[in-house]
Amino acid sequence: MHLFTYHNPTTLFFGKGQIIAIRRAIPEKHKVLVLYGGGSVKKNSVLDQVRAALSKHTFTEFGGIEPNPTYETLMSAVELARREGIDYLLAVGGGSVIDGAKFIAAAVPFEGKDPWEIVEKHAPVTKTPLPLSCVLTLPATGSESNNGAVISHAGKGIKRPFFHPQLYPVFAVLDPTTTYTLPLKQIGNGVVDAFVHVAEQYLTTPAQGYVQDYYAEGLLKTLLEVGPQTLQHPLDYEARANFMWVANQALNGLIGVGVPQDWSTHMIGHELTAMYGLDHAQTLAAIFTQNLRVRRKAKRAKLLQYAHRVWQIPATTDEEKAIDMAIDKTAAFFEVMGLKSSLAKLKIEREVIEKLPARLQESGQTALGEHGEVTPVVAKQILMASMEA
User: Fold this and answer.
1) Nearest to 62 by CA among 166, 52, 82
2) Which of 44, 110, 141, 269 is least crowded, fewest Cβ atoms below 10 Å from its Cβ?
3) Distances (CA, A) of 97 to 17, 143, 228, 246
4) Strand pairing of 132-138 and 171-174?
5) Is 35 helix (H, G, I), strand (E, B) or coil?
6) Is the CB of residue 160 less than 8 Å from the CB of residue 267?
7) Residue 232 burial by CB count (10 A; 0-12/13-18/19+): exposed, middle or buried?
8) Are 132 and 88 in contact (CB under 8 A)?
9) Is-contact 90 302, C-beta < 8 A?
10) Computed over its alpha carbons, how large is the radius of gyration of the chain?
11) Does the CA dihedral 353-356-361-365 come out positive or negative?
């Protein structure tokens, strides 16, 4: 197991009715900017609950943050925050709104020429970012308690991740009842997103990280169990609670410490979203299992472990067959959750096989994966496999 340092300062308020915790968790001296996306938080009363909790605070609102938050929209919020003297951000929504809040938090005090440098060039944030917290309404990304975000630049047609040690939310409210009114498509997206988050940290190469492996396997098996339950029984509190908790644990940094991590599916997926506007989780579903097929030799040991421990495929099964079965079962699970498991099923144009690897080359993403083995050439092979599946 590799050396590591683990730190996660985010306080979590979990359970029904916890939105009221905002009242005491944000000091009244702060001037708060409440950020949200579309109208769902208005329709399901979440925004009303947040407003009630902030009744003794001074706050302003900014809505309209997209599912793939754009630099252009977020800069409007940055300008508002600077103009109004905002010194605290509260994101109400899913990972996109929270990611957007992280960019805004870093951009408001940014003194460089263009805040996009924070994302694309990982420019140093010379002044402390604004403190931010969140009320999670769509479990998926784990952004509510990590320091990463993914932002799109509509003008440039690109989507990029960035990280900063001071962008952990101060606190996050996780109330499972806020997810009851979500469309089933968003629930399916969230389950698959969380599943691939875990798998990108687990399905790599053995590193004798026994705790990380067993923890990751438990999270995957939990998603296999509660994922379909959340679709079949929308008001099942326990199913929603477990889904919300496992999505958080999938990307709060814990299961990836001391072990190799992949993330090549995510990087390829980001390009697909930028090119075609696909939901993030849908890009993961279309690429992940084909990525495993193409790189099965390098991932052989962990794929066998995955087959036996997660899918309960007997150890007596022929090894190649066991790997095939595990990958096939994963693709079938994505389909059960309502997502297509290949680009062919999405009817994406074949030109993607040439266009996307070129984009990776241009952006310097030429050595992805746990050992840097996913070159644009290998990415092309993965895309070809997905186009033929």
Assistant:
1) 82
2) 44
3) 21, 9, 26, 20
4) parallel
5) strand
6) no
7) exposed
8) yes
9) no
10) 20
11) negative
pTM: 0.95
Q: Find out whether 376 and 361 touch, Cβ atoms under 8 Å.
A: yes
CA terminus-to-terminus distance, the chain: 36
User: Domains of the chain by range and CATH?
Assistant: 11-179 (3.40.50.1970), 184-388 (1.20.1090.10)
Structure tokens at 274: 């930028």
Give the type of residue at 385: A
Q: Which residues contact 181 (CB under 8 A, 6 or more apart)?
A: 40, 43, 44
Q: How confident is the model at residue 127 (pLDDT cuts 50, 70, 90)?
A: confident
Backbone torsions φ then ψ of 255, nearest 5 degrees: -75, -10
Cα–Cα–Cα angle for 182, 130, 83, nearest 5°?
95
The side-by-side arrangement of strands in the sheet containing 58-62 is: 11-14, 171-174, 132-138, 88-94, 31-36, 58-62
Q: What is the pLDDT of residue 43?
A: 83
Helix 71-84 vs helix 95-107: crossing angle, to nearest 10: 50
Query: Residue 53's pLDDT is what?
Result: 97
pLDDT digits (tens, 9 = 90+) for 324-339: 999 999 999 999 999 9
Is residue 186 a contact partner of residue 136, using CB atoms and an 8 Å limit? no
pLDDT at 126: 67
When comparing pLDDT for 42 and 377, which is higher? 377
Do the beta carbons of residue 179 and residue 244 sit within 8 Å?
yes
How far apart, in whole angstroms, are the C-alpha atoms of residue 179 and residue 140?
11
- Concatenate the DSSP letters of all residues of 347-372 into one string: T--TTHHHHHHHHHHHTT--SBSTTS
Distant-in-sequence, close-in-space partners of 250: CB < 8 Å, separation ≥ 6: 142, 194, 195, 197, 198, 219
Instruction: Indicate the DSSP class of residue 112.
Output: S
Tokens standing for residue 118: 């924070």
- For the chain, the maximum distance between any two Cα atoms, rounded to a whole number of angstroms, is 66
Amino acid identity at 184: L
> Which residues are paired to 174 by β-bridges?
14, 136
> Residue 217 and residue 69: Cα distance in Å, rounded?
31
Cβ atoms within 10 A of the Cβ of 261, count?
A: 14
Tokens of 35: 């950020």
